[in-house]
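Recall that a protein's primary structure is simply its ordered list of amino acids. Everything else, from secondary elements to tertiary packing, is in principle encoded there. The following example makes that idea concrete.
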Amino acid sequence: MNKTFGQKVISFNKNLKYSGKLPKDFSVMNPFLENPETLVVMKEFYEKFYNDNRKRKFIIGINPSRHGAGVTGVPFTDTKNLEKYCGIKMTSARTHEISSVFMYDMIEEFGGVEKFYSQYYINSPFPLAITRKNKNGQSLNANYYDDKELFKCVENFMIESVKKHIILGLDTSEVFILGKKNAEFIKKINDKENFFEKMTVLEHPRYIQQYKSKEKQLYIDKYILALNH
Protein backbone atom coordinates (compact mmCIF):
# COMPACT_ATOMS: atom_id res chain seq x y z
CA MET A 1 0.00 0.00 0.00
CA ASN A 2 1.33 3.42 -0.94
CA LYS A 3 1.94 5.74 1.97
CA THR A 4 0.30 9.16 1.84
CA PHE A 5 2.42 12.32 1.93
CA GLY A 6 1.30 12.80 5.55
CA GLN A 7 2.28 9.29 6.61
CA LYS A 8 5.74 9.82 5.13
CA VAL A 9 6.15 13.07 7.10
CA ILE A 10 5.02 11.38 10.33
CA SER A 11 7.52 8.61 9.79
CA PHE A 12 10.29 11.16 9.01
CA ASN A 13 9.54 13.07 12.23
CA LYS A 14 9.37 9.94 14.37
CA ASN A 15 12.81 8.85 13.17
CA LEU A 16 14.48 12.21 13.61
CA LYS A 17 17.64 12.22 15.64
CA TYR A 18 20.80 14.25 15.62
CA SER A 19 23.84 12.50 17.00
CA GLY A 20 26.56 14.61 15.42
CA LYS A 21 28.98 16.95 17.18
CA LEU A 22 28.04 20.40 18.42
CA PRO A 23 30.23 23.32 19.52
CA LYS A 24 30.38 24.21 23.22
CA ASP A 25 27.19 25.77 24.69
CA PHE A 26 24.96 24.57 21.83
CA SER A 27 22.41 21.82 22.21
CA VAL A 28 19.70 20.25 20.07
CA MET A 29 16.17 19.74 21.30
CA ASN A 30 13.97 17.07 19.74
CA PRO A 31 10.33 18.09 20.31
CA PHE A 32 9.11 14.59 19.48
CA LEU A 33 11.05 13.13 22.39
CA GLU A 34 10.50 15.95 24.88
CA ASN A 35 6.71 15.84 25.04
CA PRO A 36 4.55 12.78 24.20
CA GLU A 37 1.64 15.05 23.18
CA THR A 38 3.79 16.69 20.47
CA LEU A 39 3.86 13.37 18.64
CA VAL A 40 0.08 13.06 18.95
CA VAL A 41 -0.80 16.54 17.61
CA MET A 42 1.86 16.40 14.86
CA LYS A 43 0.36 13.10 13.67
CA GLU A 44 -3.14 14.56 13.77
CA PHE A 45 -2.03 17.60 11.74
CA TYR A 46 -0.38 15.61 8.92
CA GLU A 47 -3.21 13.07 8.78
CA LYS A 48 -5.69 15.93 8.48
CA PHE A 49 -3.96 18.14 5.87
CA TYR A 50 -1.64 15.75 4.01
CA ASN A 51 -3.81 12.68 3.59
CA ASP A 52 -3.05 12.32 -0.16
CA ASN A 53 -0.19 11.91 -2.62
CA ARG A 54 -0.17 15.36 -4.18
CA LYS A 55 3.16 16.92 -5.05
CA ARG A 56 3.80 20.05 -3.03
CA LYS A 57 6.27 22.92 -3.19
CA PHE A 58 8.75 23.29 -0.35
CA ILE A 59 8.93 26.33 1.94
CA ILE A 60 12.17 26.27 3.90
CA GLY A 61 12.53 27.83 7.34
CA ILE A 62 15.72 28.02 9.42
CA ASN A 63 15.21 25.61 12.29
CA PRO A 64 12.24 25.27 14.67
CA SER A 65 11.90 27.66 17.59
CA ARG A 66 11.32 26.35 21.10
CA HIS A 67 7.86 27.94 21.24
CA GLY A 68 6.61 27.12 17.74
CA ALA A 69 7.40 23.77 16.16
CA GLY A 70 9.58 23.01 19.20
CA VAL A 71 6.29 22.44 21.04
CA THR A 72 3.69 21.49 18.42
CA GLY A 73 5.94 19.62 15.99
CA VAL A 74 4.35 21.66 13.17
CA PRO A 75 6.53 24.37 11.53
CA PHE A 76 5.53 28.00 12.22
CA THR A 77 2.61 26.80 14.31
CA ASP A 78 2.21 27.67 17.99
CA THR A 79 -0.48 25.98 20.10
CA LYS A 80 -2.78 29.00 19.68
CA ASN A 81 -2.88 28.81 15.87
CA LEU A 82 -2.86 25.02 15.85
CA GLU A 83 -6.17 25.18 17.68
CA LYS A 84 -7.65 28.31 16.06
CA TYR A 85 -6.93 27.50 12.40
CA CYS A 86 -6.18 23.78 12.29
CA GLY A 87 -8.77 22.66 14.85
CA ILE A 88 -6.20 20.67 16.87
CA LYS A 89 -6.03 21.33 20.61
CA MET A 90 -2.93 20.79 22.70
CA THR A 91 -3.50 20.45 26.44
CA SER A 92 0.03 20.06 27.84
CA ALA A 93 1.33 23.41 26.58
CA ARG A 94 0.21 26.93 25.62
CA THR A 95 2.50 28.87 23.33
CA HIS A 96 2.41 32.08 21.35
CA GLU A 97 5.07 32.68 18.73
CA ILE A 98 5.34 35.79 16.56
CA SER A 99 6.41 34.01 13.35
CA SER A 100 3.28 31.91 13.64
CA VAL A 101 1.10 35.04 13.77
CA PHE A 102 2.40 36.27 10.41
CA MET A 103 2.25 32.83 8.82
CA TYR A 104 -1.40 32.20 9.70
CA ASP A 105 -2.48 35.74 8.72
CA MET A 106 -0.87 35.06 5.34
CA ILE A 107 -2.42 31.57 5.07
CA GLU A 108 -5.87 33.03 5.78
CA GLU A 109 -5.46 35.50 2.90
CA PHE A 110 -4.09 32.74 0.69
CA GLY A 111 -7.40 30.94 1.06
CA GLY A 112 -7.15 29.10 4.36
CA VAL A 113 -5.32 26.09 5.78
CA GLU A 114 -6.93 23.41 3.56
CA LYS A 115 -5.96 25.20 0.37
CA PHE A 116 -2.50 26.24 1.58
CA TYR A 117 -1.38 22.89 2.95
CA SER A 118 -2.68 21.06 -0.12
CA GLN A 119 -0.09 22.98 -2.17
CA TYR A 120 2.77 23.65 0.25
CA TYR A 121 4.91 21.81 2.75
CA ILE A 122 6.96 23.75 5.30
CA ASN A 123 9.97 22.45 7.15
CA SER A 124 13.59 23.25 7.86
CA PRO A 125 16.85 21.79 6.61
CA PHE A 126 17.71 21.38 10.29
CA PRO A 127 14.32 20.18 11.56
CA LEU A 128 15.16 20.19 15.28
CA ALA A 129 15.34 23.12 17.68
CA ILE A 130 18.81 24.48 18.50
CA THR A 131 19.54 26.34 21.73
CA ARG A 132 22.62 28.14 22.98
CA LYS A 133 23.52 28.87 26.59
CA ASN A 134 24.21 32.54 27.28
CA LYS A 135 26.61 33.89 29.95
CA ASN A 136 23.92 33.51 32.63
CA GLY A 137 23.36 29.89 31.73
CA GLN A 138 19.97 30.50 30.09
CA SER A 139 19.11 28.52 26.96
CA LEU A 140 18.07 30.77 24.07
CA ASN A 141 16.90 29.96 20.54
CA ALA A 142 19.77 29.68 18.07
CA ASN A 143 19.93 29.44 14.27
CA TYR A 144 22.05 26.82 12.53
CA TYR A 145 24.06 29.62 10.85
CA ASP A 146 24.77 31.67 14.00
CA ASP A 147 28.18 30.13 14.38
CA LYS A 148 30.62 28.91 11.70
CA GLU A 149 31.60 25.88 13.73
CA LEU A 150 27.95 24.99 14.29
CA PHE A 151 27.16 25.10 10.56
CA LYS A 152 30.19 22.89 9.86
CA CYS A 153 28.89 20.37 12.40
CA VAL A 154 25.33 20.26 11.03
CA GLU A 155 25.85 20.75 7.28
CA ASN A 156 25.88 17.04 6.33
CA PHE A 157 22.84 16.38 8.49
CA MET A 158 21.07 19.25 6.71
CA ILE A 159 21.91 17.86 3.26
CA GLU A 160 20.57 14.42 4.23
CA SER A 161 17.49 16.04 5.71
CA VAL A 162 16.72 17.97 2.48
CA LYS A 163 17.15 14.73 0.49
CA LYS A 164 14.65 12.99 2.78
CA HIS A 165 12.20 15.89 2.44
CA ILE A 166 12.37 15.73 -1.36
CA ILE A 167 11.61 11.99 -1.32
CA LEU A 168 8.34 12.76 0.52
CA GLY A 169 7.00 14.02 -2.80
CA LEU A 170 8.18 17.57 -3.29
CA ASP A 171 8.14 19.56 -6.51
CA THR A 172 11.75 20.75 -6.86
CA SER A 173 11.20 23.19 -9.75
CA GLU A 174 11.04 26.08 -7.24
CA VAL A 175 11.77 26.36 -3.54
CA PHE A 176 10.75 29.22 -1.24
CA ILE A 177 13.32 30.19 1.35
CA LEU A 178 12.43 32.26 4.40
CA GLY A 179 15.13 34.68 5.47
CA LYS A 180 17.98 36.18 3.45
CA LYS A 181 20.76 34.78 5.64
CA ASN A 182 19.11 31.36 5.51
CA ALA A 183 19.06 31.65 1.70
CA GLU A 184 22.83 32.25 1.55
CA PHE A 185 23.47 28.93 3.30
CA ILE A 186 20.82 27.00 1.37
CA LYS A 187 22.37 28.35 -1.83
CA LYS A 188 25.75 26.91 -0.78
CA ILE A 189 24.11 23.53 -0.29
CA ASN A 190 22.08 23.79 -3.49
CA ASP A 191 25.16 24.74 -5.55
CA LYS A 192 26.74 21.46 -4.43
CA GLU A 193 23.71 19.20 -4.57
CA ASN A 194 21.45 20.72 -7.27
CA PHE A 195 18.30 20.06 -5.27
CA PHE A 196 16.17 22.91 -6.66
CA GLU A 197 15.96 24.60 -10.05
CA LYS A 198 14.85 28.00 -8.78
CA MET A 199 15.18 29.66 -5.40
CA THR A 200 12.73 32.36 -4.35
CA VAL A 201 13.72 34.24 -1.20
CA LEU A 202 11.12 35.80 1.09
CA GLU A 203 11.64 37.82 4.27
CA HIS A 204 11.41 35.70 7.40
CA PRO A 205 8.10 36.01 9.32
CA ARG A 206 9.93 36.83 12.56
CA TYR A 207 11.78 39.72 10.88
CA ILE A 208 8.52 41.05 9.43
CA GLN A 209 6.63 40.87 12.75
CA GLN A 210 9.53 42.34 14.72
CA TYR A 211 10.80 45.11 12.45
CA LYS A 212 8.27 45.68 9.68
CA SER A 213 4.92 45.19 11.40
CA LYS A 214 3.56 48.49 9.98
CA GLU A 215 4.16 47.15 6.48
CA LYS A 216 2.89 43.67 7.26
CA GLN A 217 0.19 43.75 4.58
CA LEU A 218 2.82 44.55 1.97
CA TYR A 219 4.73 41.39 2.95
CA ILE A 220 1.59 39.26 3.01
CA ASP A 221 0.87 40.45 -0.55
CA LYS A 222 4.47 39.69 -1.52
CA TYR A 223 4.20 36.14 -0.19
CA ILE A 224 0.88 35.49 -1.90
CA LEU A 225 2.12 36.88 -5.20
CA ALA A 226 5.21 34.62 -5.06
CA LEU A 227 3.25 31.53 -3.99
CA ASN A 228 0.42 31.99 -6.46
CA HIS A 229 2.36 32.67 -9.64
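The CA atoms of residues 61 and 124 lie 5 Å apart. The two ends are 34 Å apart (CA to CA).
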